[in-house]
Predict the structure.
Amino acid sequence: DAGVIQSPRHEVTEMGQEVTLRCKPISGHNSLFWYRQTMMRGLELLIYFNNNVPIDDSGMPEDRFSAKMPNASFSTLKIQPSEPRDSAVYFCASSAGTTNYNEQFFGPGTRLTVL
Amino acid sequence: DQQVKQNSPSLSVQEGRISILNCDYTNSMFDYFLWYKKYPAEGPTFLISISSIKDKNEDGRFTVFLNKSAKHLSLHIVPSQPGDSAVYFCAARAYGGATNKLIFGTGTLLAVQP
């Protein structure tokens, strides 16, 4: 069974450009999470969805960041315009259920470099 | 403000010895704690967890200890193996909030020397 799929694995772009990161969660999972990993702050939760509905976006750093989940099998994280400080590894994770604790399964991440 | 802190960015131990990774938290509402392990170029994977009603949970070579009064948890790996070399993240969940929201620490890089 395929795990969480993220694309692209690596993205290099120039400051000011739009960046779109993509995620396909594990089939049947109804919670989806976007994280950003940096050396200074570790793994930060940016936003998460339950049943395709955004529940908590308090971690989204600025209005330049937006996320969508048009259906249960696809989500995007967009940065427009991108800045060098956005350079980080972005992870998508999914989990099943919304009651009690359910393990989060992470994708391999997208390494973003903004020049 | 970091609610979950891993103050040691790195740790080096000899193969066969014990590895102890530490984590401190500030929010007394956290009710569930987890450790995730991350290899380079891969996503984190779940390792072990503990509920706040317990003080110890063991799974093979891995044991997690929770000291609620000190708001401190630790992960013990005995014996350490070279394959354990990875970044370890501590995470916590807040009771009563969104049930699957986790707060992660900054991670500790463990290097197990052969």
Notes: The radius of gyration of chain B is 14 Å.
